[in-house]
Amino acid sequence: MKKVSVLLLLLCFMTAFLTAGCDSLAEEEEEGDDTLYIYSWGDYLDSDVIAQFEEETGIHVVLDEFDTNESMYPRVKEGATNYDLICPSDYMIQKMAENDLL
User: pTM value?
Assistant: First the structure.
């Protein structure tokens, strides 16, 4: 069940990556930068699923991990803008939205 959930999550990531800013995506493809930067919980994404995603899509995944929302939040607040996807908990999403961090 966990692998299915993670696979669905990665498919959502891929969809977000491919549909976000078509013009910028075209520029990235021209530059050869097919990388997805993810900031997520430690042990949340299975490394085998990430490897399969990379093999099937040709998109390289760079995964940075955090152990609590409270350790993730300051990094994002200080300007960690290179992430395509961040996976906080629901209450932290609310806090991030209130502080214009989304």
Answer: 0.64
- Using alpha carbons, select from 40, 32, 19 the residue that is nearest to residue 85: 40
pLDDT number for residue 28 = 42
Long-range contacts of 49-57 (CB under 8 A, 24+ apart): 49/3, 49/6, 49/7, 49/10, 50/10, 52/7, 53/10, 53/14, 57/14
Contact 76, 101 (CB under 8 A): yes
**pLDDT tens per residue across span 75-102:** 898 987 788 999 999 999 999 999 988 8
**Structural Rg of the chain based on CA atoms:** 14
